[in-house]
Each structure stands twice: as structure tokens, then as C-alpha cells.
Design a protein that fits this description.
By secondary structure, the protein is α/β, with parallel strands linked by helices. The protein has a single domain, classed as Purple Acid Phosphatase, chain A, domain 2, CATH 3.60.21. 16% of the residues lie in helices and 32% in strands. The chain has 5 helices and 18 strands. The strands form 3 sheets. Strands 1, 2, 3, 4, 7, 8, 15, 16, 17 and 18 form a 10-stranded mixed sheet that branches. A 6-stranded mixed sheet has the order 9-10-11-12-14-13, covered by helices on one side. A two-stranded parallel sheet has the order 5-6. The protein is globular, with a radius of gyration of 19 Å.
Length: 323
């Protein structure tokens, strides 16, 4: 038997945290740290007396659909219909390479049909996909760049690697990515610790980080401390990686209420166990106050659920469930 300390594993964590991940998979979502942050109502005004400029929608992890098709419900399309832009975390790589045979190697290999789902979800030219996550390096840099090029060819806006760590929607709005984790050794994806270097002065800087710990309904104290430090630098933080929804909150700084969402969970995927079915869709209105500062006015967030249609395919809908 291979000694556990010498076992090569393809997870973002060490052995102890990987075992903790296995326990959560077996027992269900962890509710530890409940109440550590206060969730805002699913329709909230963060800052009043503002003049509307545009609206951005954010979803969480776009996981592999394998060979299945994923449909988007009419209710979700209606909810998104007034958004000007959509931002999502594209987790994994579109490739025909085989997955690795290795302990804990849950490589995310997308089939090209994921592009059809994304095209149906929202207009590609107004969709922004972050590729900075723990599965970006699953198949190496060459396959990663091929996948990014494939998405660009279909008119999606992509960012999240060393040479393209941010994307400017326009002169006033910048999206910045960075991951806390990587399953593989790779030096080509944008990292969380470098994100502040890409803040654009005079613009509204959304930080869209891949951070936190999986299968936990509430962020750990260390993650809360980190996020509260980062929100002093960025104008809003909307996170992903835990594969389940975590609270949508706000933090006040210099008289402005800033949006801080810890995890938007999973937007889609083929896993049918309850813990992997849910995500959050956030809509945030950007506006100007009387000092002409750009900030967030109204925020709306809703739970989403990816459900099996019973024929091997799936549908993503808005959900009223309680997790």
C-alpha cells in the first residue's frame, strides 16, 4: 500500500482537507459557521438616491454537462431579460483529451454542447466568462488556450489567465479574476493574490474570485477576514468555488454599501445529489450618486437549481427551495 503522505492527489487541498472534503460529500453540506455573516434580502437597495446606468447578472460555476444537453427555463430567461451583461465562471476545459486516472482527479472536461447552452442562456457578445479556477489546469496550458479560443470564436468574452487577468466591459467597468486554488501545478492562470495589481483607477472594479472551501454553506472566519480586507480595495466581490450557495452580504466602507457575495454555487452540472444542484443568480444595478461616484443601487438575487429531466438531460430554473 502507498503511504498516504506520498499519495499524489489532484485536488486543490492537502491530504487532511481532501479527507474533510470526502466527509462532506458523504454526510452532506456543512452548516458550520452559520451566522458568521448576515445575508441581505433577495431584493435590496444597497445605496439610495442614485441614477441608474446598467445592470450586470452573475452566475456561479458552469460545470461539465458531459454529453448531456442543458436547457434554460423560460422563468430564468425572463429574470435575465433586463440585464445588460452576464458574468459566469467557466469551470474546466473544452477538450477531447481523456481524464486522468489518479486519486481525487475529478477533471472537468466539457463537451462542445456546453457552448449551445451558454448561447441559449444569454447573448454571447454580452457574456463574460472567467476561466480562472481550480480546474483550469486539468489538461495543461495548450488545451486550456484551445478552449479559450473556441469560446472566443463563438463570440464569448473570456478572461482569467496570466496574459488576460481582467476584462473591461467599457471604460467604466472592469471585471477582475483570480483563483485561490488549482488542482494541478500550473503558472498560466490568474491568481487571487495578484488581483489588486489590476485595479483600474476611476472605474468600477468587480472582483470575481475563485475562493473559499467546498460544500460549506457559510464561509470560514479566515475567508470572511480575507474578503473584508479585499472589499476595501474593490468595489464589489462576487465569489465562486464552494459548489453550494453561501450568503449574499454587504459591507459598508467610506459611506458606501458594497456587495460581497461569498459563493454563487453551481449553475449547472450532471451531479444529481441535492448538494450539487443549487446556485445563486445575482443582478446588480450600477448607478451614479450625486457625487458622480459609480456604485451599486439595487440588488436582486435568486436561488437556481439544475434538475434532471429524466431523459439524461437537464434544465436550470429559478428555485424557491430551502437548502
Amino acid at each position: 500500500m502507498i503511504p498516504i503522505q506520498r499519495l499524489r492527489i489532484a485536488t486543490p487541498y492537502g491530504v487532511a482537507e481532501s479527507i474533510n472534503w470526502l466527509i462532506k460529500n458523504a454526510l452532506g453540506l456543512s452548516k458550520k459557521n452559520a451566522g458568521i455573516v448576515k445575508e441581505i434580502p433577495n431584493t435590496s437597495i444597497l445605496n439610495e438616491n442614485t441614477r441608474f446606468e446598467c445592470k450586470l447578472a452573475f452566475i456561479g460555476d458552469i460545470m461539465t454537462a458531459e454529453n448531456s444537453s442543458v436547457k434554460i427555463s423560460d422563468g430564468m430567461k425572463e429574470f435575465l431579460s433586463d440585464a445588460d451583461y452576464l458574468v459566469g465562471n467557466f469551470e474546466g476545459v473544452i477538450t477531447k483529451e481523456r481524464k486522468a486516472i489518479q486519486p481525487f482527479a475529478f477533471d472537468q472536461r466539457h463537451d462542445e454542447n456546453i457552448i449551445e447552452m451558454l448561447t441559449d442562456l444569454f447573448e454571447p457578445r454580452k457574456t463574460y466568462l472567467s476561466l480562472s479556477n481550480n480546474h483550469a489546469g486539468d489538461f495543461g496550458e495548450e488545451e486550456f488556450l484551445k478552449s479559450a479560443k473556441m469560446l472566443e470564436t463563438r463570440n464569448f468574452n473570456v478572461f482569467g489567465w496570466r496574459k488576460k487577468p481582467f476584462f473591461d466591459i467599457n471604460d467604466s467597468i472592469r471585471l477582475i479574476s483570480g483563483t485561490m486554488w488549482s488542482n494541478r501545478n500550473c503558472n498560466f492562470i490568474s491568481r487571487l493574490e495578484n488581483a489588486k495589481n489590476h485595479i483600474k483607477q476611476g472605474a468600477f472594479n468587480f472582483f470575481y474570485p475563485h475562493f473559499g472551501y467546498e460544500l460549506e454553506l457559510y464561509p470560514r472566519p479566515g475567508i470572511v477576514k480575507m474578503a473584508r480586507g479585499l472589499i476595501r480595495e474593490f468595489d464589489a466581490i462576487i465569489g465562486h468555488h464552494p459548489h453550494c450557495p453561501q450568503p449574499v452580504t454587504t459591507e459598508e466602507f467610506s459611506g458606501i454599501n458594497k456587495l460581497l457575495a461569498y459563493s454563487l454555487g453551481d449553475f449547472c452540472g450532471v451531479l444529481t445529489t441535492k448538494k450539487y444542484q443549487y446556485g445563486i443568480l445575482v443582478k446588480a444595478e450600477l448607478a451614479r450618486d450625486e457625487k458622480k461616484r459609480m456604485l451599486i443601487g439595487k440588488v436582486e438575487w435568486r436561488l437556481t437549481k439544475c434538475s434532471s429531466l429524466g431523459d439524461g438531460n437537464f434544465i436550470v430554473s429559478l428555485s424557491d427551495d430551502r437548502i
